[in-house]
Amino acid sequence: MSTDMVSVTIDGVPIQVAKGTMIIEAAKQAGVVVPHYCYHPSLPSPAVCRMCLVEVEKAPKLMPACVTAVADGQVVQVNSPVAKKAREGVLEFLLINHPLDCPICDQAGECELQDFVFQEGRWGSRYDDYPKRYAPVEDFGPDVLYVPNRCILCTRCVRFMESVAGDSVLEVYERGDRAFIGIDPEHALDHPWSGNVVDLCPVGSLISKDFLHKARAWELDKTASICPGCTQGCNMTIDTRDSAVVRLRPRPNLDVNRHFMCDTGRADYRWMNRGDRLEAPLWRDAAGVHACDWDAALDRLASLVAGADGAVVVLAGGRASCESIGWTLQLAGRRRRAAAMKVPMGIEAPIGLVPNLALRRERAANLEGGRLLGLSTDWVGAIALLPGTALAIVLDVDLDDADVLALEAAAHVVHFAAVLDPRMHGADLVLPIATLAEEQGVFVNRDQRAQRYLPAKSAPGMARPAWWIASQGWARAEANRRAPTTASEAFGMLEPFAGLTYRDLGLTGCTVGAGIAGAAR
Amino acid sequence: MGYPHPIHPKETPVLSKHFGEVAARTYAGWVERGGYAALRKALGMAPDDIINEVKASGLRGRGGAGFPTGMKWSFMPKDDGRPHYLCCNADESEPGTFKDREILRWTPHALIEGCAIAQLAIRAATTYIYIRGEFTEPYHILRRAVDEAYANGVLGANALGSGKRIDIVVHRGAGAYICGEETAMMNSIEGRRGNPRIKPPFPAVAGLFGMPTTINNVETLAAVPAIINGGAAWYSKLSLSSPKSAGTKLISVCGHVQRPGTYEITLGLPMKELIYDLCGGLHPGRTLKAVIPGGASVPIMTPEEVETCPTDYEGIVAHGSMLGSGGMIVMDDTTDLVYVIMRLARFFAHESCSQCTNCREGTAWTTRVLERLLAGEGKASDLDLLLDLAENMTGKTICVLSDSCAAPVVSGIQKFRADFDACLNGSRAVVTVGA
Amino acid sequence: MSAHETVVHDPVFGGVVLAKLEALYPQYPDKRSLLLPALWLVQEARGWISDGSITEVAGQLGLTPAYVRGVVTFYTMYHTHPVGRHFIQVCTTSPCGICGAEDVARALVQHTGCGDLGATSADGRFTVIEVECLGACGFATPVIIDDDFIDSVTPERVPEILARYP
């Protein structure tokens, strides 16, 4: 055993953990949840909720698991009668002024107070005869409401703004049982990352206006995904109710975004619910535009590529997956003269005090993936080559009017798109593609980390992942070509990722490019 | 006015020798009374020798916990190259306690001298004296004394010509009992809410401004010059009982005694003598009902317990309570213990910092139950409820404010059950509980 | 938000008050530690601590207004609202309580015309509050009026004492 490891026993489970690990994290590794409120792995621990008190052999009193480091040979009881009685007491105290308005509370179903009271709270309160304290709902910021009655003063929000965002607009005001979370009256909670306080709040005290009364937590399906907003590649969860995306939330990844995502990314989901989607391939001939089936569309695609008399230009958007970019380039083949990604630029918005975490200027999630696969960022150069180009392949990109005009100079245009762009009436073939929310794929973030996203809902009509369309077209263009049958295969067949499978990436990704060896981690 | 009173033959005036002498407040007056000789002596001593002298004297913390002072000083690192700090706890606000106030008012230079010597021992250039905001008069007196000490070269870059830097800053609190808790005090000096900190790290490792820090009570520090002057051997022999309880202790006595005030006793003096001889006993026709011997947060004693109790650290523990800060509340037979305990609970609820759930909610709830008992609206189950709340408030929080609220509730119900029963069965006259 | 928000704040920290604050800088290793002293200076100068003053103090010390307000509201001696010309604090905690302090508090409310604890008299002369332990339990009932400590107050002495504070 390494000297950096210690052996502890938690609820009878012997484990070895790194020296310095707090009991609460060690317990997680032993498969034991220590109920808690103020503790959060991405925030400093104040040990104030007193919920995580555990019995440590030989300690004279219960110890807070969140700030007590493990010691070699330690025996910890999380579910002993004494520890349970202590938690029952804390829960009763917390419920003194907490309204039982779960039926109208957005947090219900994912509320840590509700969960732990249900799990081990006492039956009924002895704090009868007294009315609960009341204070009206306050508007804290663009997307945050504060419901003071529900607040249990865990101070996660205060610590987030102070220690993570570096913008102390929240503070505990007053003291004793008069204390509440107050906001600077001259400021709003409008830091670009302030929406995280809603996720951090263990109860329904800080709630999102956008999500207000939209769904009950238990109606939501949750899908692991990656934010397509910028090159940071924050891990996120897409929450869908039926087939509608109703909320995006950060998914923990300590190497990328810890437990956070920015408000811009969080708010950008409505496009995933568009009703005016392309549902069938469209083919244009002299007589006009016709919807067709995939068989016809893929044949047409293959023949357009095979018959292209001259150079091919590929124009891709920043949200296209590695699979889609890779197979579109494969489709374009050796006649490719230029291939570029359009990278919209915005303002860099760092979270504040966490290193290497920001809403990045480059608003193209797969910029690095594109680079690895051979895309340049010389969009203007690629557009300039369009006159005289035999075939332009446009892959899921927001075109401006100048781009559209320039495309008219290409002999033929194939457009991979989720929504019909009426300005692109000259396209020979429009291929309906699935969006991020509807397909599996991989983005590579700015730190060369390849990360998977999963489908949260089904694609409309005949829409398919762009990689599937491109690879099928490629296979049909020449005999003896075999197209990948799964997304994982489509990924592993790409040269920069050779040998990697989705399984290797897991759900939090791994580093590629310079160090494919990172996959071994 | 109960004080200054003539020194009683059973008192041992060491710290209180010059109480009541206005001239002792001035630098000149203090020097005339032998002041700053101890500091001069200490300036010629090695820091560890000062620590050893204080260790040998048996001096223990006079703020409440009773931790051996020399030992506490020895926890400070040596030659670590970081700034060290001394904090003097002058946030006296434990109900029943008003002894430090007398030192601050009458012999501020004794405190300054004690701070300076302690600074030498723990290698700290700066002391922050944290004085509670409500102490307006003591604050002004202390400020004047510190200014005078600077003006006369006792403090500053070249203290008493020694070439050593000794600074003292008087930092005024603003109304928060909890700032008497040492880590809360450090937060308050740093300009924060007075929330107690989690220990570890202990102050000697990372205290004020993250630096090694020692926190001592006013009375503890004021006793240091006397020890340096008189020697550890002399001081350690000042005991009428256990050798573990050495020296003199200021006891502030209030409540239903004829002569309330601050008395200096040799530790071990029978509590009965303190109450009946020094303080003149109870008012005529009254009998003793209860004593809280060490400030509001210690268990309440019965007359039987008082009868045989010596006033020292170990003796009071053996008799069911604690010496604590030495703030003694004496109650006669007209006292309703439920009222006393309710007011104490209300005090703690008012002073809870709000951090820990058990304290924030428990102190307020306990107060409400006691209020309803007093109003004659209690339920038979309320006493069990109070005891269970007390259990949920004891040993569960960062600091001991919550425990302090629970202690008198538990001891009150255990030892003065009749008062609670009277509230429940209607035999007590219903009192309107004040706002 | 409070009503005084629209009032243009007249800066406290200029001239003598600023000089007093700056004189304290060398006593502490960082600016944050000046917070309690700075708030005392504001209260000395203005009698209370307004929203504008909070923002100003925050600016002086490089803190946020929310942080400063959190500190102000933690400590009971800082007034976040204007108070009477004379501020009266009467201790009613247990040791004083058993010596009749609540009667003294009632007498103070009655003779000042404040109507209630925490309220200010109609003429703006007095505010009376009940405080927890003034650390002068042997001198029951202790009362602090402005900066003056008055011991052994009884209900009978109240009118005479108040007369000293016009």
Q: Into which percent range does the helicity of residues of chain A fall?
A: 10-25%
Termini distance of chain A?
21 Å
Number of strands of chain C: 4
Largest interface, chains and sizes: B-C, 62 and 50 residues
From the spread of the alpha carbons, the general shape of chain C counts as elongated
And the CATH topology of the largest domain in chain A? Answer: Rossmann fold
Provide the number of structural domains of chain A. 3
Keywords:
heterotrimer; B: 435 residues; alpha/beta; four-stranded mixed sheet; 11% strand; C: 166 residues; alpha+beta; Arc Repressor Mutant, subunit A; Glutaredoxin; 2 domains; 4 strands; disordered N terminus
What does this structure look like?
The complex is a heterotrimer of chains A (521), B (435) and C (166). Chain A contains 14 helices and 25 strands. Chain A is α+β, with helices and mostly antiparallel strands and 521 residues long. Residues 515-521 of chain A have low confidence and may be disordered. Chain B is α/β, with parallel strands linked by helices and 435 residues long. Helices cover 42% and strands 11% of the residues of chain B. Chain B contains 18 helices and 8 strands. Chain B has helices at residues 27-32, 37-43, 47-57, 69-74, 100-106, 108-122, 136-151, 182-189, 218-230, 232-236, 271-278, 303-307, 313-318, 337-351, 357-374, 382-393, 401-415, 417-425, and strands spanning 85-90, 126-131, 167-172, 213-217, 248-255, 261-266, 288-292, 327-332. A 4-stranded parallel β-sheet of chain B has the order 3-2-1-4, with helices on both faces. Chain B is globular, with a radius of gyration of 22 Å. Chain C has 2 domains: 15-74, Arc Repressor Mutant, subunit A; 86-162, Glutaredoxin, CATH 3.40.30. Helix content of chain C is 39%, strand content 11%. The longest helix of chain C has 12 residues, at 35-46. Chain C is elongated. The chains are: A alpha+beta (521), B alpha/beta (435), C alpha+beta (166). Chains in contact: A-B, A-C, B-C. Chains B and C meet through helix 7, strand 3, strand 5, strand 8 and helix 14 of B and helix 2, helix 4 and helix 5 of C.
